[in-house]
Amino acid sequence: MADQPQDELLLHQQLLGGTDPTATEEAASRYLPLIEKHVAARAWNIYHTNDRELIWDASVDAVFDYVRNPQKFDPSKSSVLGYLKRAAERDLINAFKKYRRQRTGEELSDNVEEFIRSRNKRSEISGIVRDAEAQMISSIQRERDLETISNVGNERDEELLRLIRSGERGSDRFAAVLGIENLPAVEKRRIVKQHKDRLKVQLKRERSKRRD
Amino acid sequence: MTERNILHWAAKRAADEPWLLAHELREYRELNDATEDEVAAALDCSRDALVCLALCRRPNPDAPSFRPDVEQIARHCGVNAHKLAALLREVDSLRTIREVPVPPHVAATQSGLLAAARDRKPKDKKRSAKKRGK
Fold this sequence. Notes:
Chain A is an all-alpha fold. Chain A has nine helices and no strands. Chain A has helices at 6-17, 23-47, 52-68, 80-102, 104-117, 122-152, 155-165, 172-178, 185-211.
């Protein structure tokens, strides 16, 4: 068993037992500031960013996942803090990928310029240019998709599409847009999926129309 | 919730988690069109106490543990237990009323609240008839 403070194990037991309603708050206030510090250092060292929301989201995702599913943590392998730090690092990588996807065109163009300025090998430059072009095309494609939905004049669909584009995975935000947040979870997920599928089919049709 | 630090940010994010109390606090605000300060006033607590509440697990109003859970949360966060219980019951009741299916012909003429009250009338009549029979 990893060497762990007694109170850390006690809190973990409380989360596992699910009988103490304040255990989630105790875990959040105990670990979040420590995880934030760790994630902020990583974000700066690896990605040269100090984006506050990115750092906070990665830290909160890791801690919420732990308090929601404490059974995933194995006390014989590491301390809770070590476990959370690793989870938050993974969340940071995912958040950063998502963030980069959202800032496609201009950022990649900047990269191309930067590479050219730093006189990289020709093959590397053409690789970057190809990536930038592909990203640019997909960004234009997304703009057109959005335009298509906007033309339908349906604000709800526009909002749903925005959520899809932002990489939202949970069904709660979609459910809020659809006004079905009070339905049982299974039913909610089913309806959200129906709407996502409908939008995808609609977009596909519009794209093939444009190609014709 | 104003994001002054990571705990405030977590409390804001917690509103999307139905198993946390933040979700109920947001429902209360939406149902009553209330600001955070008004919620804090309703609970007779500070805004920092609201952050603490937001991150606690939501007590189940139907469970026998509801009362002790509310008392424990109230002690932990420094809020009035009676006021917290009343707020949670209010949110739960309004949610239940909202979820009662309203027949289309009633929905066209009546408010959902009246329809929900009417739905219970025939049952009450039967019960009182039985009682009278005895």
